[in-house]
Amino acid sequence: MQNEFNLWWGAAGVMSLLVAAIHIFAGTPEIMVPLAQLNMPDVLYAIMDVIWNQVSLLLIVVGLALLLASKRGAQSMDMVLFINVIYAGIALIFVVAGMFYLQSLWPMPQWILFGLIALVAQIGWHKQKGRVQ
């Protein structure tokens, strides 16, 4: 019973992969293409590009890790907890940056997506914990 499929973790994994697709296919033209047209030192654009692609990698790897966790059950509880901390932290960073720089949460709604993924995965963590104890 400990390794029963965890639907919540599977859903969170799919959500992360969908956010990766949005980030890559919608975000790149909206954010990175205009930034490439600005007159800035090459090293600054290169750093932004690396960070952009790091986020893409994070979203994909975490999505796959959550899908793997959904099949492995109790063995993955620690990993999922760390993922939840990372995604909840990213959501918090968007909230703080939005309020500090823009005085609003709505110009950067990414906090909703990261918060939802963390919430769904955390529900799965608690469900899994109930199976183990």
Report on the architecture of this protein.
The protein is mainly α and 133 residues long. The protein is 83% helix and 0% strand. It has helices spanning 7-36, 42-72, 77-102, 110-132. The radius of gyration is 17 Å and the shape is elongated. 24% of the residues are buried. The mean pLDDT is 95.
What is this structure, in a nutshell?
By secondary structure, the protein is mainly alpha-helical. 83% of the residues lie in helices and 0% in strands.
Q: Beta fraction of the residues?
A: under 5%
- Portion of residues in helices? over 70%
Overall morphology: elongated
Query: Distance between termini?
Result: 11 Å
How many extended strands? 0
Order of helices and strands: HHHH
Low-confidence spans: none
By secondary-structure content and strand pairing, the structural class works out as mainly alpha
**Count of discrete alpha- or pi-helical segments spanning 4 or more residues:** 4
Query: What's the story with the biggest beta sheet?
Result: none
Instruction: Report the average pLDDT across residues.
Output: 95
